[in-house]
Amino acid sequence: MALDRPGTAPRNDLSAFWMPFTANRQFKQAPRMFVSADGMYYKTSEGREVLDGTAGLWCCNAGHNRPRIVEAIRQQAGELDYAPAFQMGHPKAFELASRLRDMAPEPFEHVFFTNSGSESVETALKIALAYHRARGDAGRTRLIGRERGYHGVNFGGISVGGIVNNRKAFGTLLTGVDHLPHTHLPEDHAFTRGQPDAGAYLADDLERIVALHGAETIAAVIVEPMAGSTGVLMPPKGYLEKLREITTKHGILLIFDEVITGFGRLGSSFAAAHFNVMPDLITCAKGLTNGVVPMGAVLATAQIHDAFMTGPEHMIELFHGYTYSGNPLASAAGIATLDTYAEEGLFERAAELAPYWEEGLHSLRDCPHVIDIRNMGLIGAVELEPIAGAPTKRAFQAFLDGYEKGILVRTTGDIIAMSPPLIIEKSHIDQLFGTLREVLCALD
After folding, report:
1. InterPro entries, per this entry (predicted)?
2. Residues 43 and 111 in one domain
3. How much of the chain is helix, strand and coil, in % rounded to 5?
4. What does the pLDDT look like over 280-317, one tens digit per residue?
5. 49/78 same-domain check
């Protein structure tokens, strides 16, 4: 292997970084580089401002370059850079866990820290399996996900997930997994504002799966309360309530993946509180630290946690964890982020702005190629008619054109998804949708 000579400048021709979820060859021919960010805007390497219509990757809920968060990380790095989480601790991890417990819906009493949404999902699935075993019900090993579900990219997450391209290249995945149907009914749900009326019956398919495999074999059902990465799919009215009713009836744990919906995105701390449906475990990440330092968490009820707290006190109760669980810098960032949310009333702000956001989004209904619009809280999606023989191309072109015109949106398939920082102003909403209108009207 050839080595650079001492004293020579390292090469930076973009080839070394294999980028995730990216068309690498296309990107590296015409790179889109952000070099700084502040408030609602990124700045590109050419000096242009780009309005952040996606809160980064659904994660920068408090906007960018927030002073309290920046200072908390700076101070923590100079005080305690790292502490092991196995058999040792540091105060800020416990403080953040207590803060999360206090803001979560009432049944949730305990927090297990991870480093990402993907790890939070893996952790929740393992806790569910171990919980049944701890209670003497080790036959419950089957996991139920949902079509078009996104639960991260680790093997457990893509096994219970239901996005085809995330699964098909990676072999047989986990065994003992089944899937509920997704909740999107285009013929009934097109241009719905908020939760659609039709579709609660889709939860009844869980009874079919129970009858097929036997309730005594099923450990947990995992769903996103509102599916985000697959294109913003809303739960029909009564759907989540039915899932809770059926899982409770059969002794099956219900897991809400709130990596996207957690921390104010729908105007509440968590979607569980927004919909008033309480699962047994909640996964979260992204907005926990405002995306600044990687961190995730699993919130557990006392019933789940206490099932492990048996046997000799000197023995490890759960053989699971990560080198960076409760990392000091991440914990400091998390505390500062929760302070920012509270002091600025950002969850309440999201709820107050949601109607204005909804009107702006649905004003795009008359644009060319638009076949559906969906929204809830400060989340929205515009679905485009695919180009015959070239699926995803039209939406990707909209993404590229939007970037050139100064807005950042996300695409999944032929769906444009938006989820701005909760500090967004009405003028920003006008800019985002006004520019998107220009983009859509110019598309082939």
Report:
1. Aminotrans_3, Aminotrans_3_PPA_site, PyrdxlP-dep_Trfase, PyrdxlP-dep_Trfase_major, PyrdxlP-dep_Trfase_small
2. no
3. 40, 20, 40
4. 999 999 999 999 999 999 999 999 999 999 999 999 99
5. no
